[in-house]
Amino acid sequence: QVHLVESGGGVVQPGKSLRLSCAASGFSFSNFGMHWVRQAPGKGLEWVAFLSYDGNDKYYAVSVKGRFIISRDNSKNTVSLQMNSLRPEDTAVYYCAKKDRHSSGGSLDYWGQGSLVTVSS
Amino acid sequence: SYVLIQAPSGSVAPGQTARITCGGNNIGTKSVHWYQQKPGQAPVLVIEYDRDRPSGIPERFSGSNSGNTATLTISRVEAGDEADYHCQVWDSDSDHWVFGGGTKLSVL
What we know:
The complex is a heterodimer.
Chain A: E1 3-7, E2 10-12, E3 18-25, E4 34-39, E5 45-51, E6 58-60, E7 68-73, E8 78-83, E9 92-99, E10 108-111, E11 115-119
Parallel strand pairs in A: 2-11
Antiparallel strand pairs in A: 1-3, 3-8, 4-5, 4-9, 5-6, 7-8, 9-10, 9-11
Chain B: E1 9-12, E2 18-23, E3 33-37, E4 44-47, E5 61-66, E6 69-74, E7 83-91, E8 96-99, E9 103-107
Parallel strand pairs in B: 1-9
Antiparallel strand pairs in B: 2-6, 3-4, 3-7, 5-6, 7-8, 7-9
């Protein structure tokens, strides 16, 4: 079965950097796009970034564009999110999620359990 | 950017039918996906492409989408259905995935 496990969260000061990773198993990782989605405490879901199966297409939410970088290593079945210039408003649980099988758009059909990032001095 | 509107909360008695709506400009022309999220847990896809149930999702969950409103319907509601429900679409104009604000469903 599909299994997604995030790691790398923690407490970081404003302006600093943090890198999240997501290890995937149970499906053919190199055939599927991957997402990062976050959820601030007590708030709804916010889509953060998407990376296509081959790494050629990347899309970012306006709130993180220019600060966050999504990448993947298909040889290791991992997707990462490099977060730079962190702000207090980036505090959230960050989920990695698998894109469904359709070619464009689509749903996020499997999710990891999330990794908490707290940006505070 | 495309905006999805959900009521913050709703309630239903056990055994009754819950209807959770998601509003958006001409949302009927987009594919809508619904996620259930219980406290402290990750979201789970319960309806995809307006009305399709992923494997393992009970038949009590159904969806529809027309005009400016998409609806998630939960029939014969159980206590275990108490959760936050989030709608989601893909905005092809911006290549962004968009979530509604979520609706907290309470089972009285």
